[in-house]
Design goal:
The structure holds three protein chains of three kinds.
Chain A: H1 4-24, H2 28-52, H3 59-89
Chain B: H1 2-6, H2 8-29, H3 35-60, E1 66-75, E2 78-86, H4 88-111, H5 118-136, H6 141-159, H7 166-196, H8 202-206, H9 208-212, H10 216-233, H11 242-245, H12 251-260, H13 264-272, H14 274-278, H15 281-302, H16 308-328, H17 332-360, H18 365-370, H19 377-391, H20 397-410, H21 416-440, H22 448-486, H23 491-499, H24 507-512, H25 518-540, H26 554-561, H27 566-612, H28 620-639
Antiparallel strand pairs in B: 1-2
Chain C: H1 8-24, H2 31-55, E1 64-72, E2 77-83, H3 87-104, H4 112-131, H5 135-146, H6 149-156, H7 161-190, H8 197-203, H9 207-224, H10 233-240, H11 243-268, H12 270-296, H13 301-322, H14 325-356, H15 367-370, H16 372-386, H17 392-407, H18 409-434, H19 450-468, H20 470-486
Classes of the chains: A mainly alpha, B mainly alpha, C mainly alpha.
Chain lengths: ~100, ~650, ~500
């Protein structure tokens, strides 16, 4: 159980769920949460590789911390975009945002 | 510049020929709103020109040809000179042009009085005088061509002088375009000469040795092409129909440009490089045929028209044809002399007709006769003098020049030309006196009463300036009548003056002019008298039918009246081939093929863009899906 | 070739750039000031160009007033300017047309600032192409001059302006898409890492390279010179463009095309030009006759002039195709003469259009009565267009036809027939527009005022001046053309 592949499988599952969420959810908030899942999958990977393979125990953790910070920033910007979009079209359904249709 | 003031001859040339240009510029720029001043400036300028022309004639009449030349510009090996060439021919022509232009401008003071375009009229008259005088003394054929075109331009403006009238502007355009057809031939001929001969100087071209160096076919082609210019300018067959239409212009213009001087420019050009033309017998034969056809065709046209000016217009064409015949048959002097006398009496005829037209406001000879045209004694007498001269009756000037031409033609081996000329002479006399008798003896007598009433109602105000206006018109007419009377008797001095310098080069041509005998003179005179007699029988005598024998042949009448359907032919072919054919074809090509093709490419691009734009659904998630799938494919590709 | 004295060419170029910069900093409401600044800067350019023309020593000939500075070493790009007998008349023409065009537009009210700024940008490009002797810069300036045409036509234009602007831009860019590869080809084939025109000329290219690049350059520049069958953008563009733009466009911009063929194509690829010369002559002759015939059927004044330009540019093309001194002399002279003449044409039509709001010939008529002076400008231009002697274009046509009849007799004669047709269609337009009964609709229209007559009078006098004294121009032109042709 306590092997690298377990973590990697969990992280892959997490990533797939996130990807699924992004591709399929029509709710922008849901998509944002899915993005968090993607990032967390990556975080898990970093931690797992760090734990089993890397000689230096800190580097993976540092990167994970960076990613968390990045996720916070991303959530802030994403939410503000969603807010702006909501003001414009009174909805957060992504199907309404199709201005770029050719 | 210094030479200009030290050489009185050069000064006379430059002043005499260029003052009219200055006057045009001044009128157009400054005095347009002051008609009186404009006319004074113009007449003053042309007076100087006439005086300097006479001065030059007097000063140089027995000197050898004088040449002034300076380089205008050069391009490669091509040297274009600007210069003056004064030989007897150009001096004679300079005098004719100067004097007649001067008389016509004085006449116009009366004729054009009160016209709203008075200033403009004098500006264009000055333009014409400038161009014509410069053309006459041009030192090279190119320079001659340049002023030749400018003369045509002046003619375009003056024909279309009453530009509000559609027919007038149409006639101006027709004249310009038909002239252009001839001029392009002329231009091409000059280019041909530049390439083949390398020089366009008139003395060089006339130098026998120079032209002999050229191959015969080059010479013939060049001569024929240059002759196209004569055809256009002197209204020869097949470009003769512009001249009758040109009568839309004011009558003094018709007198000056379209009979006495400008149309004679073609003949002048022919005689200008006469030795050059004579070097090509083929070209001369063509010219002879064209001259003859022209003379006969336009003679027939003149026999049926009732329009005063049209008669003289056709007659001008016919006489020009006669001059071309004379020159083409080798009669240098005969042609030039006929040009000289014709300039005098034809200007006279037009100016007299102008007085009638001015008085009665119509061009129809029947109406003028009915309204009492013969009461105007001075013009009536003068027009009779002109008609006698035109018919070639002794002792008027036309007699002498016509005899000279007949003499030349008689020397031709083929007598058909002589016969044609005699037929032409009969027709000439017939139509001139048909007109005279119409004026003198109108059909139902003169409408006395109407004229009286007319006199009472409007004579009062006409009388006011009648004196000035009438005499402004009458004096030039009388001068010209006098000239027509005397000119014939100076035939031999003129001949000596002209031939003296050319006789060495062409002894044959000279000899030919004295080939005729007494029988020729008798034939010439009797041809004229025959025409007059027929006219008398039909229009003059008491109880005459006043219809003309041609009215018994309606088809022929129509043929003559419609100018042998030449105009219709031109109109039709222009409409069919140019407007209907090429122009519309090319326009469609532009719209459909070229633009259509380009627009097609644009539509294709746009359409294919639209076709592929369905991929762009605007859904963010599809884009992402595509991205993921693409990444997946890439990963698979990299792994396996 | 080093810097010699005052860099007058850069100074001429900078009059336009400076004008542009000053206009940018003037508030848009001050239209009068903007116009004054524009006219002042155009005047400085005109004076400098006249001085340049006067100071050019045609006895010596060759390239003078040279400025040459290395700009990018690795690519061999030079800031290399100079004038010789071929581009000197073009510089003079540009300054004249710019000056008169700005004056003609004095009554403009709509977005004045942007208009004059764009005009200066356009003319900066034109000056740049004419004076530059470096392929890279020629191309850059060429594209600089193309770009402002689109907004100028699309914003200030008239009939079908978007269509006209789009068509023109696409055509010209297609042309420049042919020119750029040709220039790169030459740079690579030269192998000397230089864009310097004269160094490339010294290198010389193989016959195959010359044939390939010449046809690309010919077609690319030929589009701008309205060579048949790539001419249809030009009448459409002229019709759509506002007066000053038409003037600059037909007067100067179209010359860029012919100039490019001569300056790049024939200089660098003489053998290629020789190889393609019969094609050039054929297209030129078709253009002369075709343009005149199509012009005959037009009912819009500007279309008529547009097609007459096609015909006249055909004369230029024919002159170039003869590859002889007379032909090229005539072609360059014709470029100048046609530029001035067309500017006069559009300038006078512009006045009529401003006042009557129509340029459809059947709707006009009788204008000679109401506006004699404005009409006479057009009539003079028409006469110049017909090729009446003592107008500049007559000499140009004479020289071209002398050369053409010698080299291509059939084509030359066919093109001469075009002269008859051009007389017919010009006079037809004059008759229908200016002659005939007075039209009551236009009775209230004032004749052109003294102030607005000035630019037209200037153009008219230039036509007449060079018509009477062609030597002044031809001496300059042939000082360069004779050695140029001797290289063939």
């Amino acid at each position: 159980m306590n092997s690298l592949s377990t973590y990697l499988i969990i992280s892959a599952l997490l990533f797939s769920m996130g990807l699924m969420g992004i591709l399929q959810r029509r709710n922008l908030i849901g998509m944002l949460i899915s993005v968090e899942l993607l990032l967390n999958a990556a975080n898990l990977n970093f931690m797992a590789f760090n734990r089993f393979l890397a000689p230096d125990p800190v580097i993976g953790q540092i990167i994970a911390l960076f990613v968390m910070g990045l996720a916070a920033a991303e959530a802030a910007i994403g939410l503000s975009i969603i807010l702006a979009l909501y003001r414009k079209m009174h909805s957060i359904n992504i199907e309404r945002a199709q201005r770029l249709k050719g | 510049m210094g030479a200009l003031f030290h050489d009185p001859i050069l000064l006379a040339i430059v002043l005499g020929t260029n003052l009219p240009f200055l006057s045009m510029a001044v009128i157009l720029l400054f005095t347009r709103s002051n008609p009186k001043l404009s006319s004074q400036i113009s007449v003053g300028a042309i007076l100087v020109s006439a005086v300097s022309a006479i001065y030059l004639l007097a000063k140089l009449h027995c000197a050898s040809p004088l040449q002034y030349q300076t380089l205008w510009f050069s391009s490669d090996k091509l040297l274009i000179a600007f210069g003056y060439y004064l030989d007897p021919l150009s001096l004679l022509m300079l005098t004719i042009v100067g004097v007649i232009a001067c008389l016509v401008q004085i006449y116009s003071l009366g004729y054009m009085a009160g016209d709203p375009g008075y200033s403009r009229y004098y500006a264009f008259q000055s333009l014409f005088a400038w161009a014509m005088l410069n053309m006459v003394i041009a030192g090279s054929m190119l320079q001659l061509f340049i002023y030749w075109e400018m003369v045509g331009l002046a003619s375009y403006f003056l024909i279309g002088f009453y530009y509000e009238k559609w027919s007038a502007s149409q006639a101006g355009k027709k004249a310009f375009v038909m002239n252009r057809v001839g001029d392009v031939g002329f231009f091409l001929g000059l280019i041909w000469l530049v390439i083949g001969f390398g020089n366009l100087g008139i003395p060089e071209l006339n130098h026998a040795a120079a032209t002999q160096g050229l191959p015969q076919h080059v010479l013939t082609v060049a001569a024929l092409l240059i002759f196209c210019g004569v055809i256009g300018k002197s209204a020869q067959f097949p470009l003769l129909t512009w001249l009758p239409d040109a009568m839309e212009g004011p009558t003094p213009v018709s007198a000056l440009l379209h009979s006495a001087t400008m149309v004679a420019a073609g003949v002048y050009m022919f005689s200008r490089i006469f030795p050059f033309f004579s070097a090509s017998p083929d070209a001369m034969a063509v010219a002879l045929a064209i001259g003859t056809i022209t003379m006969l065709l336009s003679g027939t046209m003149a026999m049926v028209t009732y329009d005063l000016k049209q008669v003289w217009a056709y007659s001008t064409v016919s006489q020009l044809g006669m001059m071309v015949m004379a020159l083409a048959a080798g009669g240098y002097f005969a042609g030039v002399f006929h040009l000289t006398t014709h300039a005098g009496f034809k200007a006279l005829l037009f100016l007299c007709s102008g007085i009638f037209i001015h008085e009665f406001h119509t061009n129809d000879m029947r109406i003028i006769g009915k309204k009492g045209g013969r009461r105007l004694k001075i013009p009536m007498a003068c027009i009779a003098v002109g008609a006698l001269a035109l018919s070639g009756v002794f002792p008027f000037s036309g007699f002498f020049s016509k005899e000279a031409i007949l003499g030349v033609l008689a020397a031709q081996p083929n007598k058909i030309w002589l016969a044609a000329a005699l037929l032409g002479a009969v027709m000439t006399a017939y139509y001139s006196f048909r007109l005279i008798f119409h004026l003198l003896f109108p059909k139902d007598g003169i409408e006395e009463k109407q004229h009286e009433e007319h006199g009472h109602s409007s004579h009062g105000h006409e009388e006011d300036h009648h004196g000035y206006i009438f005499w402004a018109m009458a004096i030039p007419v009388m001068i010209l009548a006098g000239v027509s009377l005397v000119l014939g008797f100076v035939e031999h001095p003129i001949e000596h003056f002209l031939i003296g310098h050319i006789v060495e080069a062409h002894p044959v041509a000279h000899g030919a002019e004295h080939g005729g005998g007494e029988w020729l003179m008798i034939m010439g005179v009797s041809a004229g008298l025959l025409g007059i007699a027929v006219a008398w029988f039909e229009f003059g005598r008491k109880g005459a039918s006043r219809k003309g024998f041609l009215s018994y042949f309606p088809a022929v009448w129509k043929l003559f009246d419609r100018r042998w359907f030449l105009d219709i032919f031109y109109r039709k072919s222009l409409d069919t081939f140019v407007y209907g054919g090429l122009t519309s074809l090319f326009t469609k090509n532009d719209r459909r093929v070229i633009d259509g093709g380009i627009d097609g490419i644009c539509f294709f691009t746009e359409g294919s863009g639209r076709l592929f734009s369905f991929l762009q659904s605007g859904m963010l998630q599809y884009n992402l899906l595509m991205m993921v799938l693409a990444a997946g494919v890439a990963v698979l590709y990299l792994l396996f | 070739m080093e810097m010699a004295g005052f860099p007058i060419l850069t100074a001429i170029l900078s009059t336009t750039i400076l004008g542009l910069l000053i206009i940018i900093f003037i508030p848009p409401e001050k239209t009068k000031l903007i116009k004054q600044v524009s006219l002042a800067s155009a005047t400085v350019g005109l004076v400098l160009c006249i001085w340049l023309y006067y100071a050019y020593d045609h006895q010596k000939g060759g390239l003078q007033f040279v400025e040459r500075i290395l700009w990018v070493k690795s690519l061999g790009i030079y800031w290399f300017n100079g004038v010789d007998g071929i581009n000197l008349p073009m510089m003079l023409l540009t300054s004249i047309v710019l000056f008169t065009a700005i004056w003609t537009m004095w009554e403009l009210e709509n977005r004045v600032k942007e208009f004059f700024a764009l005009i200066f940008l356009l003319v900066a490009g034109v000056y740049g192409v004419f004076m530059s002797m470096d392929l890279f810069w020629i191309f850059v300036w060429y594209d600089v001059s193309l770009f402002p045409m689109y907004p100028l036509i699309a914003i200030w234009g008239g009939t079908r302006k978007e269509y006209g602007a789009m068509k023109l831009t696409l055509y010209l860019l297609a042309g420049s898409a042919l020119i750029l590869p040709a220039i790169i080809y030459l740079w690579v084939a030269g192998g000397a890492h230089t864009f310097d025109l004269f160094e490339l000329q010294r290198i010389g290219f193989s016959a195959f390279d010359q044939k390939m690049t010449f046809i690309m350059l010919y077609l690319g520049f030929g589009i701008l010179a309205a060579v048949w069958p790539f001419h249809t953008w030009s009448p459409v563009g002229h019709v759509a463009a506002p007066t000053a733009v038409s003037m600059i466009h037909a007067g100067v911009l179209m010359k860029l095309g012919a100039y490019g063929i001569l300056r790049i194509g024939m200089t660098l690829c003489p053998a290629g030009a020789q190889y393609w010369s019969s094609l050039m002559a054929l297209l030129a002759c078709i253009g002369i006759v075709y343009g005149a015939l199509v012009g005959l059927a037009q009912t819009d004044l500007k279309y008529v002039i547009g097609y007459s330009s096609v015909s006249h540019m055909g004369v230029v093309g024919l002159g170039l195709a003869t590859m002889s001194v007379n032909g090229i002399n005539g072609a360059v002279f014709q470029m100048f003469a046609h530029g001035v003449m067309t500017a006069l044409f559009f300038s006078s039509v512009g006045y009529i259009y401003d006042r009557t709001h129509t340029k459809i010939i059947p709707e006009l008529g009788g204008l000679s009565k109401t506006m004699p002076i404005a009409s006479s400008f057009f009539i003079v231009a028409a006469l110049a267009g017909i090729g009446v002697p003592l107008m500049a274009s007559f000499w140009a046509e004479l020289l071209v036809f002398i050369a053409a009849v010698k080299v291509f007799p059939v084509g030359g004669i066919a093109a001469l027939v075009g002269l008859i047709i051009s007389a017919l269609f010009m006079l037809r337009v004059v008759q229908r527009t200016f002659y005939g009964e007075k039209n009551p609709k236009w009775e209230h229209i004032p004749d052109v005022s003294g102030f607005l007559a000035v630019p037209r009078v200037i153009l008219m006098s230039i036509i007449l001046f060079f018509g009477m004294f062609p030597k002044i121009m031809l001496d300059v032109i042939q000082s360069t053309v004779i050695p140029f042709v001797n290289r063939f």
